[in-house]
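We store amino acids, tokens; thus:
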Amino acid sequence: MPTLSLQGRNYFYEDRGEGVPLLLFHGFPFSSESYWPQLAAPPKGVRLLVPDHRGFGKSAPGSGILTMDAMAEDGLALLDALKLPSAMIGGLSMGGYVAIAATRLDPGRVRGLLLLDTQSTPDDDAGKARREAAALDVEKNGVGALVDGLLPKLMAPGVASDTRDRVEKMMRAQSPQAVAAASRGMAARIDGKDILSRFSGPCAIVVGAQDAITPVEKAKAMQALVKDSTLHVIEGAGHLSNLERPGELTPIIEQLAASLP
């Protein structure tokens, strides 16, 4: 895994495949490993760039709240370092929030959007309170209780046991500091509806039919905002559709790359 130095911090990323670059942000509380099927067999004609957010995986931590803008800025800095003027940008769940933030920060660099099991709306007051409670608990007691509560909601019933076990192991390996910082960052995110409504490029929206965290209705709401968008509902998948049905995601990414102007 290559390393980039950002303001003295080590920033790790995976770089696989050849073709149109796709900067792909991971969800919460994961790392770049959460795209292991795509990294093992990159879509044809696509160069996957998958970083670890600050404090996650092998990337060094930052300080304070880990905002969606901060993660987006890191990703854009990676494109700068690789001398890539533009790319497709995408992400799953929290990674989708980061992709939307990158689109707001530098829309001219976003050739296409890939939004996986995510949403454009911010947390309400109750949601923000839950994020803060989770952050406080993780800081005090570690990530165990968070993982125990979240894991049953992530995947559809019947997911392969080795997939579930690998997801759980990855979640438990994450830094409590980073998990708490990202929980607070998600609570602070702004509404992304206006950003999506102004986006003029192609956009693929993917959601598991059994996603209990960001259900199909939220995906449909995003599709209504983006003029040039397609909606793909993956049967038999929950919130981690890229892991539960990887074979169905690959052609969607290839079609998105082929649709770029």
